[in-house]
Amino acid sequence: MNKIRKLFGIKLPIIQGGMVWNSGWQLVSAVSNNGGLGLLGSGSMYPEVLKEHIQKCKKATSMPFGVNLPLLYPDIDKHIQTIVDEKVPIVFTSAGNPKTYTSELKKHGIIVVHVVSSLKFALKSQEAGVDAVVAEGFEAGGHNGREETTTFCLIPNVKKHIKIPLIAAGGISTGQQILAAQILGADGVQIGSRFAATAESSAHQAFKEKIALIQEGDTVLTLKELAPTRLIKNPFFQELEQAYANGVSKEDLQNLLGKGRAKKGMFEGDLDEGELEIGQSSALIDSILTVKEVFDLLLKEYKEAKENMPVF
Fold this sequence. Notes:
It is a single chain. The protein is of the alpha/beta class. Helix content is 42%, strand content 15%. The chain contains 14 helices and eleven strands. It has an eight-stranded parallel β-sheet with strand order 1-9-8-6-5-4-3-2. A three-stranded antiparallel β-sheet has the order 7-11-10, with no helix packed on it. The radius of gyration is 18 Å and the shape is globular.
């Protein structure tokens, strides 16, 4: 049996990325109800909001779901307590040292997966005792790795050196790409951008429509001095570019970014002044679908790609 299906108790080895301002209970429960694993994006939630979304997920699905937990979240202890109290079975940690909380979470019977962008951190995660790793390539949206290693290079290298299950992420939005990730050695895939542009996503409709219009080259990795982030090129991004051209300091860059930019863009729909985080695979997305339609399409594409694979 597939390692990821067995680990999480799901029907399909497809995980929905826990994207801030996109991954509320409606998206998460829909993904889990369609056979994948939905993840709440707790990085954009106050502790009481996370609790509310967990409880709504429990009512909306009887299938496993989890929480994506950025380790740099300021109230992380409260999030962890909520996760433990609500008996969430699965946690994906990111943006921090996996040693810090893995043993504490596993002590409560929680399956822990850590998101990495390099072999170095995949090995550190394995040493920390995580149950699996997500190896996320440079193509991914939102917060990203500094190494700029592409998924096509990252997955086979990580697979060669770790013993625990491997989930591929970054630039995956089609069934063909799922098959390619499997061939490279992945046991499952994590998909973000394709699920951000669904009817059930908690993102603003204007942001979803923007995703469907994105073309190749319309996103870029920036803000490396703070936290590398892939953004859509919009007026706010142009402000960043001008600031870089003027030799902006790290402090001034932080002041320019300010607070709430991601919420303003993705959740409130300000396409000019907001921070619009999305992956390179958005160029492959041309419509807003329901989660069920996405799963149907992924499986159709996967089957056709497998059946029609060229032979050397």
